[in-house]
Design brief:
Layout lengths: L34 E5 L10 H6 L9 H4 L7 H14 L4 H9 L7 H10 L4 E10 H11 L5 E7 L1 E3 L5 E3 L16 H15 L7 E6 L16 E4 L4 H12 L7 E2 L5 H12 L3
Parallel strand pairs: 1-2, 1-6, 2-3, 6-7, 7-8
Antiparallel strand pairs: 4-5
Helix pairs in contact: 5-9
């Protein structure tokens, strides 16, 4: 006879006892979170490019000219693969790389924003969408005590192999002409929104927020609607390009735009929108 609970004796029922009379012990499911917050990583969560920070672990804290000049426009992931291979050849260790990542400061007010979202975790689902890599992002978030805040991380796979080399791979292939060859964030965002709506029993997020800074954060803006909000970092490429698109009346751009200089700016806006329940 199979026990009805792991480590518990089976329940003994009277033959006359209806099964429906046994009270259910199943947990009451939590209501779906109302809002989705998407974060870029480099220069959005952390205050510089994690790739640039890691280069400081190289001999002389810089790369040779032949390596720097090997970059092809739109193929940065490929370039970073060469850089990491070079660093491994030079004897740069995992500890050195991880230390450089962990030392990157957060953007101004970012930890305040994380604390706000943690205090309202019943309402906000958090996701990273970044063209950095999994090793850098998880190392930094774990050091900051913030990894648990994020439901998913979409980024380029990266891990150390048996020879001590950090092996970086592209995230996916796509047909978007706007984006680098290894990642289109609009494809990621559209796919995630559709999948989560299905997983949530057909219930979409009430609003989607996107916090970013770079040119590659523009394409996913076309996946968002008029109730959603883009938070471009003030005076960074995403901010300038969104302004140009708004001025030109770009078709398909429906999202509201709220620039930020500090995480507190994002908190203030989220507070206002939460009051519109």
């Amino acid at each position: 006879m199979m026990a009805e609970g792991v480590g518990e004796p089976p329940l003994h029922r009277s033959p006359n006892m209806a099964a429906s009379s046994v009270p259910s012990t199943a947990p009451v499911p939590s209501p779906p979170k109302r809002f989705l917050v998407l974060f870029d990583f480099d220069e959005t969560i952390v205050n510089e490019s994690s790739d640039d920070a890691v280069v400081r672990a190289a001999p002389g804290q810089q790369l040779p000219d032949w390596l720097r000049h090997s970059y092809r426009e739109g193929y940065y992931n490929e370039q970073m693969q060469r850089i990491l291979a070079y660093m491994a050849e030079q004897g740069v260790t995992e500890d050195s790389i991880r230390s450089k990542v962990e030392q990157i400061p957060p953007t101004p007010g970012l930890l305040t924003l994380f604390q706000y979202l943690q205090s309202r975790k019943q309402d906000f689902e958090l996701v990273v969408v970044s063209d950095a890599n999994m090793y850098f992002i998880e190392a930094w978030l774990e050091r900051a005590g913030a990894r648990h805040l994020f439901h998913r991380i979409f980024t380029n796979p990266a891990s150390f192999d048996a020879q001590g080399r950090l092996v970086l791979l592209p995230f996916h292939a796509h047909d978007c002409q706007r984006c680098p060859d290894n990642m289109c964030k609009q494809v990621i965002v559209r796919g995630y929104l559709a999948r989560r709506q299905q997983e949530r029993g057909g219930c979409p997020f009430q609003r989607v927020f996107y916090v970013g800074d770079g040119a590659n954060d523009i394409c996913p803006m076309l996946a968002l609607g008029p109730r959603d909000t883009a938070f471009p970092r003030r005076h960074f490429p995403m901010h300038r390009l969104l302004q140009e698109m708004q001025d030109a009346g770009t078709e398909g751009l429906k999202v509201s735009v709220v620039p930020w200089a500090s995480g507190q700016d994002v908190v203030d806006c989220l507070n206002r929108l939460e009051e519109e329940r």
